[in-house]
Amino acid sequence: MPDAQLFSIQITDDYYADIIHFLTTGWAPDEFTKHQKRQLVVKAADFTLIARQLYKLGLDEVLHRCVMPHEKEAIIREAHPGTAGGHFAGKPTAQKILATGLWWPTLHKDTKDFCRCYDICQRVGKPSRRDEMPLRP
To answer: Which of 28, 68, 88, 116 lies 20 to 30 Å from 107 when distance is taken between CA atoms?
Structure first.
């Protein structure tokens, strides 16, 4: 089918659009200033395209798949209250997502906001010292 590319739908985040364009063509957009072009080259240095998927090289030297905006909610729901979760706070939830090899620019903020607003966690709260049982040797 010669016009198959007309029916493909590309959903990209604005954060990734310039990086993907730079990695595929090797050129920065013409409307960018010289300073913006340099910033784009530096920002794109940590990214790579593998089989039409964008990956970011993390501080741990592991490639993390860049998550698109429509996937974020489902990933956080699986990592916090889902079968893989344990209703941990924002930072452990973000670390769990990073450990699975996923990444997006606002990962830590999004997990913190989700955990802060999750209804069940707000009703139960933190365990208190009063609930602990004394240890006996």
So the answer is: 28
